[in-house]
Amino acid sequence: MTAGSTVEAAKAALKTQAIETPSWAYGNSGTRFKVFAQPGVPRTPWEKLDDAARVHRHTGVAPSVALHIPWDRVADYGELAKYAEESGLRLGAINSNVFQDDDYKLGSVTHPDPAVRRKALGHLLECVDIMDATGSRDLKLWFSDGTNYPGQDDIAARQDRLAEALGAVYERLGDGQRMLLEYKLFEPAFYTMDVPDWGTAYAHCLQLGPRAQVVVDTGHHAPGTNIEFIVAFLLRAGKLGGFDFNSRFYADDDLMVGAADPFQLFRIMYEVVRGGGFGPDVAFMLDQCHNIEAKIPAIIRSVMNVQEATAKALLVDRAALHAAQDAGDVLAANAVLMDAYNTDVRPLLAEVREELGLDPDPVAAYHRSGWAQRIAEERVGGEQAGWGA
Ligand code: PSV
Ligand code: MN
């Protein structure tokens, strides 16, 4: 039985939640086999913000949008930030991109050629300039760097090159800015990735200093990896900077967060809550693509999935859990967690939304709003945002 005070505390916390949506999720996406275009897809960063504003309007908890450079390149980032503000949003993490240029075939900051390394570092530093203009706190770094064949390059030397580049970016960070280092097991490199796992990211961040933090993309692990353990460890070490949420069945599937394994998402959010990570110091970002489903309602659904996992995590009876843990009562402790997980939190979240002045059913409210029809009619001509062909 959940005590009334726990429910009220959970509701209060849920009202403060902030989930960042990625600009690229509003654009067309696909696999290397096919990108399916959808009607009404944004053609500019401004139109992406218009869509993000709809997600925030219906959920009340998606106030910021992550940018990806160069996908969201504009002439004046201050203007874009102003437009975001006028739309009830703010610009969030700046995601660097050193993976889509011919020069980066053998790597970017770890490339054997110093000229390519300088070019990649120049881009990363440009991203910090953009942060200055947008007021963004976080620079998200993901490197596709790695090798495909044993012997292709010197694995340890690549770590030296990586450390050198990270050090230069770290030095450039301004007051209140952070660097979030993302890891990924494999892809596009198949033999070694230069930042394959949380341990590598953690070691580099530790060496850099307090403003370097690890970001956990939930789709970037080997099957069966205990992600909540990583979360607990990083939080305890003060090194969890944020999440890229999505879900996976097989590899980096980029499906809607909570779709493949809602129980795992609950376990992650429980460790976040337990470890004091529920707050502004940990960035809760989505990093997903909606290849076959309608994008805006899918993003709304994803935000709701994170809210549901969070609500369940907040409902865990911590006193009962500690008592069972202290008594060594394995079954009782497990039952406390499962009771929370098995709670239907949808009525509670409907109440939270109503108390925030929102429609209790964000997806239905979006469908009623007419936005999907409007953008399909208005966004004709020009080039839709997206990648591939
Ligand atoms: C790489 O797979 C990644 O997760 C990084 O966060 C990139 O910035 C993003 O995907 C691009 O979609
Ligand atoms: Mn990611």
Question: How would you summarize this macromolecular structure in one to three sentences?
Answer:
The chain has 389 residues and is of the alpha/beta class. 46% of the residues lie in helices and 11% in strands.
Word description of this protein:
- The longest helix is centred in the first third of the chain and has 21 residues, at 114-134.
- The chain has a single domain, classed as Divalent-metal-dependent TIM barrel enzymes (TIM Barrel), CATH 3.20.20.150.
- The chain has helices spanning 4-15, 45-59, 77-86, 114-134, 155-172, 198-208, 227-236, 262-274, 295-314, 318-326, 330-341, 346-355, 362-369, 371-378; strands at 19-22, 64-68, 90-95, 138-141, 146-147, 178-182, 192-193, 212-217, 240-245, 283-286.
- The relative contact order is 0.15.
- The mean pLDDT is 97.
- By secondary structure, the protein is an alpha/beta fold.
- The structure holds alpha-D-psicofuranose (PSV) and manganese (II) ion.
- Manganese (II) ion binds next to loops.
